[in-house]
Amino acid sequence: MRAGVEMQTSGEPFAEFIGRALAGYDRNAREPDRYEDDSGARTDPTGYAAAVESYEYSRQPMNNVAFESGAGLSLVFSPTLARLRSADDGSLARPALRGQSAIDAMRALVTSAALATHAGTRVQADARPQGFVTVPVPEDNPLNRLGFGGLWATSVPFVGFDPTIRPSNNIARGCTIEGGYGASAGQSVLVGDYECGYSSLHLPSRFGQVERELSAGATGATLWKNALWIVNYLQLFHDGEGRAVASVAPADLARVGAERNDVVGRREDGSPSRGGVYLGASDIEGFHGALLVASALATTEWLLSTALVRERSPGFAGFSSMRELDAYALDSPPRWMPARIAVDEREDTVAGFPSVDELRVTDRAPSLAAQLSLVSAFATLFALVDDQNPEVGASPTARAYFDGDPFDRAFARGRFRAALRWSLLVLEQGFLRDASAGRYTSSSRFEGRASETLTVQDVAMVVQTLRLARRSITGRLVLYGDATPDPRATRSSLDEGERRLFGEETAVARIGTRIRVHAQMLVDSLTTDEGEVRRGVVRDGRVMAEPSRLEDELAAVRGLLEAHLATGEVRYRDRALRVWQRFERERWDESLGLYRTGASREDANDLRWSAEQWGYFTAAAREIYKLVASRPGEGALGQRVLARWTRASKLILNGWNDRDRDDRVDWPSECVYVRDGLVRGGLQMAERALTGETGQEGERPTADRDRDCVPEIDDAALPAALATSVTFEVVR
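Above: the chain's sequence. Below: its structure in token form.
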């Protein structure tokens, strides 16, 4: 999920930054990497790798965990669902839903979300359903208990799971991907039936396939990833024909998403919309977005009311009400989410999903990275409902989503703001190693387990996360960040009223100080003017000499460029370039067309790429291009960055080794992993309709229809998700 955050940002927005028109890519095309614009059609691996593959490869594992696999706590039992459209009494801790009340609350959410997004249209009894969601929900269909076939919505994800599945290889003839979904507006495409119902994407032996533990790190990373997609989903409306709608008159916003409404807006080409206006960029994206909002609210309330612990206090110690949470201050006894929580479940035969039977803390002390992920998640979620944020929370699309149906703005704003406030306070209470210097430590001081270490990855993430948080609380957070230095700000939404977050010091000032301290560490202690990166084990302010790893070097680049944007100081940008140049000299192997990852050529992991490393790489390469290589006079650097990013994307993610460098896949001879006659991809284990796989070509089933070296889900028996790692072998 953490890599997915960076892959999403390296997707459509990066493609647009390098001058590609997103409408020029057809995700359903049989030929991979095809691009069309006013000058005609051509092969464009760079643009396609960004606009389609990086973008959609980041979405698909999120969908798998959120809606399909069952690899988390079921959303069905969240007490939050029953309160989304009711008066807010300020309570947090309530008994979990059970049995019929649980399934009824979930059905009500699915129905309201479907109607508001046009993913389903209400039909008469015994009539054929219209859309992805059956409205009303069928009462006697065990394969469609919620209205969307096989939907397995989660709230809190498990820390890990065996992804093996048994997907159907049938072709859906009664369900088509239409009107905007997958950039196929105006088209109907026959697809594998798992695109339109998720029953065969469930973990077939869930009890034995999941790690029954929850963690602060997995919760934060997943919430952050989900939040980023929610903001993306809320960029546009769409009409009854599935076409994107760019604008709606302010007077009509209250009726957007109303069942069978007659609102007329303007499409992106200026023409009037038809068939009403609905939430989200398309039917299915709007529907998924609504479910993710509900999940984010449920996870937030669960975390704050159930999953917190205190020092020298057995068991859990969550907040019972918003009033108690709002009173939480820097001098309050700390309450934090532990590193690990074991879960026992039981089957609820009435609701049809497993419910939580017992939670037990197995590791109380979270890491700095886990807490930073929670800060990033809640900062992004708060921007969604902040009416002082003109680009996100105050946008017409967000106003329509949070107008009370399906979600109430005051309810969501109160909880997301409180969660952001709590996460920043815990960061100070538990991870501040040196108050006078303002320096954090990698592991928390809770339970007496404080460490004196701080790695370059930690420091870089501090700068990135706190910059994101500052932009959020000052109303300046935009969807994919900003390539220009941040404007100055003094006041924020966390300093409203009489009770400031940090007492006499404003939140903006405190966060700004922390950013500068850790940015300075990147220059003074963790990198050199020659571009060398010290692995960054800092003890008592001194850097211990240890060889750097690939992820350390790339994290340094990312952190230095974030420091440049946070402060406006060019010295951080200049140092980032030197680190990148050294990385290129020492890691790039021209004979292989691949970056080596080990400490030496003899290292057993020298050609092993992990998902974590890929996330760092795509982030560093993207930001170097945007902030350095795209500037006037840097044409040669820009071409090299894009060429190597493209080569790495195709080889590491897809498993396509373009040996003859002709930008065309010689299939399957250029696929690096073929087993039993089936191509097996790279880090990306399988793919589906949004990246060119539709299950068949004409009437003939296919295993890799677009022949890009990544197999179809039903042939791979794996979800469209990233593997832990991929290792290459050199054959001469």
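The chain is about 35% helix and 15% strand.
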